[in-house]
Amino acid sequence: MVAYNTKFDTICTLEDLHAQQAEFPHCIPDGIFVLDEDCKPGDDIKPIIGADDHVVEFEITPNRPDCLSVIGLAREVAATFDQPLNLHDPVVKGGGPGSLAELLDVETPASDLCPRYTARMVRNVKIAPSPKWMRERLRSMGVRPINNIVDITNYVMLEYGQPMHAFDYRYVKGGKIIVRRAEEGEKLTTLDGKEHVLNANHLVIADEHRAVGLAGIMGGENSEIVSDTTDVVFESACFDGTCIRKGALALGMRTEASAKFEKGLDPMNTLPAVQRACELVEMLGAGEVVDGTIDILNYVPQPRVLKLEPDRINGLLGTDVAESEMVSILKKLDFQVEGDQVTVPSWRGDVIGMADLAEEVARFHGYNNIPVTLMRGQTTLGGYSREEQVERQLGSMCRAMGYDEIITYSFISPTCYDKIRWTADDPRRASFKILNPLGEDTSIMRTTVLPSMLEILTRNYNYRNQSARLYEVGRIYLPGGEDGLAVENKVLSMGAYGGDMDFYTLKGAVEAILQDLRAEDVRFEVPCVPNPSYHPGRVADVYAGDRRIGVLGQIHPLVAQNYGVDAEFYCAELDFNQLLLSKGADPEYVPLPKFPSVTRDIAVVCEEKITVGQLEDCIRSAGGKLIKQVSLFDIYRGKGVDEGKKSVAFSLVLRADDRSLTGEEADADVKKVLEALASQLGAVLR
Q: Which pTM does this prediction carry?
């Protein structure tokens, strides 16, 4: 029969089927794929060539090398489904010609790198293709079939997780195998045909004359199993994982064997693996197994014993698993439990402490059954600090008022101080110089955020943007820190131009920010010391109680001229630390007033220099608890008011919290307010 492509009805070759001759030994490599199986025309080709198998892929974590085998996965499956694990014990008949003691000798000078070395010998080997079932199983696990002896070693590695190697006995000179460190500069050609130069950090398998293989990585070319091989030595050994990992990395050759050894294998697995290999040899009729086994132990097996501590395990997992359930889980995984003593199986090298036992309990109890709770005890919950909360609050408020956030560099040019009209002897110019600046324009750390804001406003203005509202919470760097370092302060800067922007619009934005922070006793005053960067008649210092928060106002026209613009820029600089200190307590619920309020309007005449804020503060102070609201509604200058004076009118809302306020009480309170205005500010009723 000839294999046809079921879709196009064309004749196929091995290449068409993505197959190799080792998988179908009867086929001609470059010829038509002739079926040797029991089939008839019309049959599905997949089961005939073994392409109908189901393959399950597992992702194994590096700490579980025991699961890099069929038996290891079977242990996990048995424990998961609470079923007994039935493992096959290899049976070897033996009886091959000769005595192993006379034919082979093994020495391990590098005993610290080879915990165990096990070997058996097979004579009168018949090299042939493996049976179909073995070839198909190897192929489904991604291993290319070669011949019966090599396939047996690969099959055992996949079944037991123990890498094995088969040596052609005739190339083991002197009948002796030596496990030793490589000599400096020693050369070895491996099975892939590449020559490697070794050093003393590599571990080799050698005979009396030369190295015949890289231990745990790959066999040597001079030990390869070929068609005329008659006697074979099966090597099943355990090597130091760190040595194998470093050796494979240094040579740039990572193999299936090295990938397993580097994770740390169970030395107790070498003997069952070599027994299984010999059993398969007899099962396939591939040779005669010589009686006897060479088994060198370079360590004393000491089972690891841990204490079972249910309370600590539950405390770590946040569960309430009964001790009996823990014992049941561990026993299903082949842990021996006697009282509070847990003996760890030899293949579970990853279990070294209480936390590892807890992991096993968690896996089989079910992660989905562990309640989602916060850690008990003294813990630090994630969240924003108070400073971060206030900074986010400021940003949110600025954005709500239409201001866009900017981020500017913390280093500026020394000429920026000249542009904002700071004199050469101004102490605020004492900046920190950068040792390796990107250039003169970025050579010092800023002591004010104003130049950075003006640069961005100017850029927007030059781009012909009709208006802009910007803000930034940036840092300034002031002298006076410990060990000559800078004091880093944060500053909320605001800048705007165009649209309906003027001094009072910016003042209202700052008031809204302070109101959102629930700052108390907010007021705006004329600066005691003139600020050369701001317009002298349109600038104010911002206060909350006794704290000076910052400054706001129109940028001085000469400063704007220095930046090459003729627009009115308005900026505010508010100290973040002072804003933080001025933040009021969180609001508390207050029921709506039960009693009606009384409204009174007053108009007072005062000196022009008296500010509205001073009048309002006096009214609130004199009116006491009855004054609930003070609203300015008129300022008048002109006929009926003397030169140099002004008339200021307020609407007052008065209310008592515990009773209905009478007209007489309201009038008496207003009288106290008028007396205070007259005595303190010289403001008289108009």
A: 0.58
